[in-house]
């Protein structure tokens, strides 16, 4: 039975390929050899690329250090955390609240679509969805209701996704009115000390009691 099948197989090879069975098997062997040789050459190159990609992916996926609380910092100090220094966290602020956005570096880091917001309070820009330099500020005065609502949505998103690490220090300028009020508050004490109405103890004997006069009859002691 097996011999009959073998004879039938050889006849089929000759009928379909026009080659003798010996020639057919030789061609098949050569083809398999070439396939394995080519596969080994290109396979090693692909393996090297795959290993390189794997190492790069692992480096990118290394756990980030925990966020560091900075407390109150100025706008100038916040600019140091714009992603230009990979050793520093990536920070940005909304409405004066600073958030660590390091794990979204692909969006806010160098080359990302929102990279220009990093290291700044981008409240106005986010509210207006503007990428202009004049809007890269925390000043939200004059914004409309729709823009303020959009900014609120951004703030909620940041509060739920990122860790707050500090606030932007604000300075309140001292106005002339406040300075004048402080000056007026200090005047009565100075005037009272220069009136000469304060009785001094006598060196020899009891001090004389001065007669109290109405305010309208005030006279200066000489």
Automatic annotation (TrEMBL):
Keyword Disulfide bond (UniProt): no
GO molecular function, one term: steroid binding
Annotated ranges, domain Cytochrome b5 heme-binding: 73-169
Region feature Disordered, mapped onto this chain: 177-222
Major localization listed first in the record, in broad terms: membrane
InterPro entries to which the protein is assigned, alphabetical: Cyt_B5-like_heme/steroid-bd, Cyt_B5-like_heme/steroid_sf, MAPR/NEUFC/NENF-like
GO cellular component, one term: plasma membrane
Subcellular compartments: Cell membrane
Gene3D superfamilies for the chain: Cytochrome b5-like heme/steroid binding domain (3.10.120.10)
SMART domains: Cyt-b5
Family stated for the protein in its record: Belongs to the cytochrome b5 family. MAPR subfamily.
Name used for this protein in its record: Cytochrome b5 heme-binding domain-containing protein
Natural source organism: Buddleja alternifolia
